[in-house]
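Newbie here. two chains, one complex. Structure please?
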Amino acid sequence: MASGDVIEIIGLIAAALTTSGFVPQVYKTWRTRDVGGLSFWMYLALFSGTVLWLIYGIYTESRPIILANIVASTLTFIMLVFIFIGKFRR
Amino acid sequence: MASGDVIEIIGLIAAALTTSGFVPQVYKTWRTRDVGGLSFWMYLALFSGTVLWLIYGIYTESRPIILANIVASTLTFIMLVFIFIGKFRR
């Protein structure tokens, strides 16, 4: 059974990946303005979900979950704005 | 301070949103075959991250985290396949 530290590290790496993971998409959409293939509903669900995970993380006092979802909710919000602007600018 | 049940429900709703959130994107990409604006690197990071979250959830015995990341890793894997096929079929 993995020790507490190893579990915490797995959580922090998972948090980093599922958070930083949005950065390449934000960058690509910023660069290409191509929102055609992007699902507004996905980013709306991911934004609402990450806000709820943030609340869950605060109540369960879990640093990896809090850290991941502050950043992920911000990045998914940015994607919502890009998609919203992209849909109405055409 | 929210009770244990409320926290568990928040976690389950968050899990449902950040899991089912990928479904509209999988459906849209399946229907439109439009992968041009999608970031391969995002889905690679999200897939690896959700697999690590799954391991974290198993070690911390957290049902919401296990549930969310079994489905999310499957859906992000499907997106990776779509993007991979889309990039090489053009």
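Moderator note: The two ends of chain A are 55 Å apart (CA to CA). The longest helix of chain A spans residues 63-89. Thread marked as resolved.
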